[in-house]
Amino acid sequence: MGEAFTALGINLPQLIAQIANFVVLLLILRFTLYKPVLRMLDQRRERIAEGLGAAEQARAEASDAQERIEAQLAEARGQGQEIVANAQQVAARIQDEARQQAERDREAAAERSVQEIQLERDRAIADLRAEFAEITVTAAERVIRQSLDEDAHQRIIEETLAESDLGERS
Length: 170
Known about the structure:
This protein is mostly helical and about 170 residues long. Helices cover about 95% and strands about 0% of the residues. The protein is rod-shaped and about 195 Å long.
């Protein structure tokens, strides 16, 4: 077998030395580099797993936060609609009260106007009565001073009416 190795150009003692060196190097690398490299790879795998877990947790928290925000927005919309509905009710009530107040004010103004007209009419009637009484008294004085015949009596009334304001109004 030695000749076959030699024919192939293989030096057996050198091959055994290289294999021994390779095994020693492999053992040295296994104890010095392999375990630390594996440890480093395991740590990296753990960090990646933690990062993925944290990302998944952050995604879940973001989803929960989004749901809470949407719920709060829906609640805010509902409250806003409720506020608008209440404001519309208040506005309608205020308009109704304003209409009722305007109606009461209009009725009060109309009543005051009627009372003022009535007072003015009563004053005018009182003035007319006073003036008529004065005219009647004046006419009666003239009639008493003169004769009591019908023509003189009519003439005195017409003269008295012509002198007074009533004659001008007719």
